[in-house]
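Appendix B, record 7
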Amino acid sequence: MGEPRWLDARQQRDWRAFLEGSVRLWDVIDRDLKAKHGLTGAEYEILVQLSEAPERRMRMAELAESASQSRSRLSHTCGRLEAKKLVHRETCPGDKRGVFAVLTDEGFATLDLAARDHVNTVREFFIDVMEPGDLEAVGRAFRAVADRIAETQ
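Structure tokens (predicted):
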């Protein structure tokens, strides 16, 4: 592997700013969702993914991938959502090992309310604090990061 390519002072500053800002942003998002809607950020993301899927249902394996969660973590998160009656699971027809997660009507209504507050939080602490060019640069940069990670998996 060889000698590491150490970060210079500017790179180190920007890397640490990213870490601090992203951790603090997720804390704000998670805190707001919990306080206003009783949802974690991970639960909210699952509801979003299901709301955008055909028939509001996805195979658990596909949902884990799209929600960036391990299958084990997703199973626990869906269990909490089932207890809240926001999601239910069904066996896939013709595939006894396959399981669908399905967004309930109550889950969709909860998401609809949560999304209204969530978008305000995202705007206040992310979108509106950046110049449009900086926001575009962040989008480009993190699409490149996601693409690079996908190439290695």
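Remarks on this record: The radius of gyration is 18 Å. Helices lie at 9-37, 41-52, 60-66, 71-83, 105-125, 132-152.
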